[in-house]
Write a structure and sequence with these properties.
By secondary structure, the protein is mostly beta strands. The protein has strands at 26-27, 32-35, 37-39, 42-44, 46-47, 51-54, 60-62, 71-73, 91-92, 97-98, 100-103, 105-109, 119-123, 129-132, 141-148, 157-161. The strands form four sheets. A seven-stranded mixed beta sheet has the order 1-11-8-6-7-2-10, with no helix packed on it. A five-stranded antiparallel beta sheet has the order 12-16-15-13-14, with no helix packed on it.
């Protein structure tokens, strides 16, 4: 278990997978269960705040595919970390419940620099959030219907959404 080395003066404004406002959000009509994607000896788990795709069986979701994603995983406190000495994680293990947001405004951690009005792309191997020009190409990603609502650098938590028009980028 890692030892805490820094103390922040103020809490984080948000965490990936949090709702970004009081506007309504749309979920899948059912709660899904996580399905691990295995490649060789490596398993890719569903991660909170990332995109997911329909899984192999009805009601399952997975963190990797090549078509458009189903939605973004919402951060809810309904998972247990049975290994008490392990570091905290945002991964949802195989078979656990996943709440998927299909439409709305959400916080997400971006893997690329984000500008207001850009489109959001989903990494097809991890579900991670990337940004880019509408209709453009981002390596190993597929374009989603989501767009950037707040700017940020790579690694920042930004607001992405589906409701309303994409706001104009400020000059």
């Amino acid at each position: 278990m890692a030892v805490q080395t820094t103390i922040n003066r103020y809490p984080a404004a948000a965490v990936a997978g949090d709702r970004a406002g009081q506007e309504p959000i749309v979920h899948t009509p059912y709660n899904c269960t996580a399905e691990d994607v295995t490649s060789g000896s490596t398993a890719t788990h569903v991660t909170v705040g990332n995109f997911v795709w329909a899984g192999t069986a009805e009601g399952q979701v997975k963190a990797a595919a090549t078509d458009k994603p189903l939605g973004l995983v919402e951060r809810l406190f309904d998972h247990f970390n049975y290994e008490l000495k392990s570091d905290g994680t945002m991964e949802i293990l195989d078979g656990q419940t996943v709440t998927v947001v299909v439409e709305g405004d959400m916080y997400a951690k971006t893997a690329t620099a984000a500008t207001v009005g850009q489109k959001v792309f989903a990494n097809t191997t991890t579900g991670a959030v990337h940004t880019g020009t509408a209709g453009g190409t981002v390596a190993s990603c597929v374009e989603t219907m989501w767009f950037v609502k707040s700017a940020g650098a790579s690694g920042d938590v930004i607001i992405i959404g589906t409701f309303g028009q994409a706001p104009e980028a400020s000059a």
